[in-house]
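ok so I'm stuck.
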Amino acid sequence: MKLSTDLFSNARWQARLSAYFSLACVLFFVTAAAFSVLHQSSYWDDPFHLTAGVAQLQTGDPRLSADHPPLARLLGALPSLFMELPSVADGAPSAWKQADLFYSTSAYVRTVDERLLLPGRLTVLGFALLLGWLLYAWAKELFGAERAWLPLALFAFCPPLLANAPLVTTDMAATTLMFASVYGWWRYFKEPTLARLGWTALSVAAAFCAKFTAVLLVPLFLLSGIAAAFSPALQPYDGKRRLLIVGGGLLGISAMTIFGIDLAYFFDGVWLTPPEYLSRSQALIPSLQAGSESLAGFWPAWLPVPLPFYFVSGMVSVLTRTGSIGHWTYFLGEAGPGGWPNYFSLLLLIKLPLATLVLIGFGFSQALSRFSRDAWNVLFLALPPLLLIVLASIGKMQIGIRHILPAFPFLFLLAGYTLRYRLTPGRVLAAGFLVALSAISTLSVHPNYLMYFNFLAGGPEQGWRISINGDDYGQGGSDLLRWLQARSIDRLAYLPNGWGGMLLNRAGISYTPPPCSDTGELVAVHAGRLLTPQNLAESMCFDWMRLRQPDQKIGYSIFIYNAGNAATRDVQGYLNKSLALYNAGKFSESIEAGRKALQWEPNNAEAYNNICAANNNLKHWREAIDACNRAIALKPGHALAKNNLAWAKQNMARSQP
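replied:
not stuck anymore, here's the structure
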């Protein structure tokens, strides 16, 4: 017994257990994320990013990567190099000429859905592996190997990360690379070597090539650099040496970032002056024209811009939208262009498991309680999420928690302070219990992680009443299609979100817009469209659906109305069809029609009796007996089913040798 106790109290053994558990957390995360989208069609953003990536790989022209930098898109599109895919540029020549990503994607979405979606998603999921490794490495340096498991456990059971990691978007790439950048900068100050500066510079360059959100690294690096120049972080060096380390580091990172961005755009449109921007943008979409005009308003006309045309025009356009235009959003019963100062702080409280929030809060309080002895590390962990959330709250681009996703790894590291100063059995058990609660809460919505809300928001059944944009991502389209096909429904009223309409059309299912009053017909509507109507007329038209509970929900995000009416209508139609086919001597077809009636109403005795009678005529005695028994179990007084059962049993007995 003493040997066993010594073994489990040994620091090396604890570190080994922590490493194994951390690895298991990362592998679980990747597996769960992959399986969550395994049978899903495109969400709203996937086809845009994949189309732009494929186009750049096919042509070398980055014109479709103006709204976002191309790194994540290129990585997601890498599997296309091993496929024979049609040309993006030839699919919609006019849209290609104007650098119009929307219409180029609309012409290419079927190719993405059928050929490239799953390989692209699995490729982009590699960022999750990198993030898990970086999180463990930093946690190990901060807290020791035996304590590093806690941030990894919170990472593994984080619904917003699980939801976004397997999507071909820029969010997970930006989260991983911004975290890598700050981690590299922190390590550089611990030991300012060229190798560590090179790691940091590459990370920052990659982050800027992944998403425009990386611009937040500029104030973050400047503030931390100023703090390092006047703090004990660079204790062994005098003032001049400190300034050289900080200033030289910032210059090196800036140079590498500019080169990296130019390389990501294949050096297209580098060193153009503002007049050349205006000339080049004339034939392009309005957002790029507006970006070029904004640039010309503040950049000297004679001075060339050392960055690519599409990067600069796109970034200026996006920053303009973020600062003043916004995006139509639903929040707390109100639809508007964004700009709610409490938007992201409230989402943070309802989109993470409550147990995770408790661990983050407790860890942060522990860090603050010993702030004087660990100020440098705490500032490095607290400043990025604080800066990101504050600036995002000031802006108007408020379309879901994914816009503050880069804050999460830092919050998980702050939670690690729960165990840093006291690694007692009681505290480890308490932390493990809270992690288990987080895991149960998260896995309860698998695979619908996008629609996760904790119980403070009423769970996924009610959370949409607080916020829906960025949660209803059009992800339910394939689930709706399977629901309709299982019931042999080929028509309905439908309000699509994302690419769901195209998906139904390709499957031969027709749909019309939802009626402006309850007509009793089957209606399917995405929650995001229901709560963010595009105009006043549409808003008034949807009132009847907003004022009543849906009969059924698909993946928490698609609301079904009048499913019961449709079921009653279709069940009777299939029963009539089954009887007519039976009378016409088409017994196999009669059985099929009866089975379709059962898809709508599994406990319909008449359908089972029809199937029994048809099987009798086909001399399928066992199938007939089974169907008649089911009919009688559902309706004990069913005389016709009893007669059919007796006929089947008698003939089966005669057929026995």
